[in-house]
């Protein structure tokens, strides 16, 4: 699933390309992904200029004057950049064309993602209840500690369910916990004050560092599922970059958690 760093890097790359451009065509190849929350047909978008491009947590927000296109890519969705006249494939869902500025196509092999077309962001499921963004100024250390206090359960789950901060999923939870030296299955409410502070610091360094890495190394297709250069996530058996111990993997509900047993010591206690 694309997480905060991919979305942030995407926004930074899209702004110079699309801000101020006019949407010249919207083609829906398959319904399902594009959810029109307006009383009007979706072609009401055509002829409007892109006035803003933002991110909230793992969501991409494209503003076209008074209308918004809000995309949650879910597990497998991504954007592709078709050449003029290039026909859609079977898992392409819609194409937004911007004249000479090119086109964006939504591709999703699982078809689980959603793009909401709305005038009112409060209508987008989950958006109003979202925790503060992991990189927002609003999420100070005090606010983070306060939110963490009300979270029982294992720290990895607390992070991936976005209970304290929005934008973190399976991959960057592993990276943040490795950076903080915290065992992923430790109970959140049993972390020491020092560990909680380390966790906050790790979150505030791992995510922006990854955005910088993407801006430098991301292949031109900007595949939102590109995961090169991570420290531990999906690196089972490879040496820990800090101590050389082979990276461990534990699968819960088919989702891998990768960590170093030496740098992130702990005991798996499930109850
Ligand atoms: Zn290690």
Q: What CATH architecture label of the largest domain applies?
A: Alpha-Beta Barrel
What ranges have pLDDT less than 50 throughout 5 or more consecutive residues? none
Kindly estimate the percentage of residues that lie in beta strands according to DSSP: 15-25%
Globular, elongated, flat, extended or rod-shaped: what is the shape? globular
Question: Strand pairing plus helix content: what structural class?
Answer: alpha+beta
Number of extended strands: 11
| Helix percent band | 10-25%
- In spatial order, strands of the major sheet run 2-9-5-4-3
CATH superfamily of the largest domain: MutM-like, N-terminal
What is the count of distinct domains? 2
CATH topology assignment of the largest domain? N-terminal domain of MutM-like DNA repair proteins
List all distinct small molecules, including ions and cofactors, that are bound in this structure: zinc ion
CATH class of the largest domain: Alpha Beta
**Kindly state the mean pLDDT as a whole number?**
95
Radius of gyration based on Cα positions: 20 Å
How many helices? The count is 5
Order of helices and strands: HEEEEEEEEEHHHHEE
Tell me about the largest β-sheet: 5 strands, mixed
Oligomer: single chain
Termini separation comes to 28 Å
Describe the structure.
It is a single chain. With 271 residues, this protein is an alpha+beta fold. It has helices spanning 4-18, 141-149, 155-160, 170-180, 193-217; strands at 25-28, 34-36, 52-56, 59-64, 67-72, 78-80, 92-97, 103-107, 114-118, 248-252, 255-259. The strands form three sheets. A five-stranded mixed sheet has the order 2-9-5-4-3, covered by helices on one side. Strand 3 (52-56) and strand 4 (59-64) form a beta hairpin. The mean pLDDT is 95. The structure holds zinc ion (ZN). The site of zinc ion has 7 residues, from loops. Residues 240, 242-243, 245, 260, 262-263 line the site of zinc ion.
């Amino acid at each position: 699933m694309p997480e905060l760093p991919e979305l942030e890097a995407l926004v930074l790359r899209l702004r110079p390309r699309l801000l101020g451009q006019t949407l010249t065509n919207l083609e829906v190849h398959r319904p399902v992904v594009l959810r029109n929350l307006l009383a009007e047909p979706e072609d009401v978008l055509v002829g409007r200029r892109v006035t803003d491009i933002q991110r909230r947590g793992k969501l991409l927000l494209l503003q076209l004057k008074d209308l918004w296109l809000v995309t949650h890519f879910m597990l497998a969705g991504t954007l592709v950049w078709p050449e003029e006249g290039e026909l859609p494939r079977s898992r392409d869902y819609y194409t937004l064309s911007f004249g000479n500025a090119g086109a964006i196509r939504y591709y999703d092999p699982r078809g689980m993602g959603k793009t909401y077309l709305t005038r009112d962001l409060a209508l987008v499921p989950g958006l109003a209840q979202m925790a503060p963004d992991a990189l927002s100024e609003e999420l100070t250390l005090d606010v983070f500690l306060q939110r963490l206090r009300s979270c029982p359960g294992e720290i990895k789950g607390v992070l991936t369910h976005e209970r304290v901060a929005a934008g973190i999923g399976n991959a960057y939870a592993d990276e943040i916990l490795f950076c903080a030296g915290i065992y992923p299955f430790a109970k959140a409410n049993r972390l020491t004050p020092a560990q909680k502070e380390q966790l906050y610091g790790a979150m505030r360094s791992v995510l922006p560092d990854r955005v910088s890495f993407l801006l430098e190394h991301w292949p031109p297709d900007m595949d939102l599922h590109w995961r090169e250069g991570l420290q531990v996530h999906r690196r089972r058996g490879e040496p820990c970059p800090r101590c050389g111990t082979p990276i461990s993997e534990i699968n819960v509900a088919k989702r891998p958690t990768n960590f170093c047993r030496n740098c992130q010591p702990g005991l798996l206690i499930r109850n």
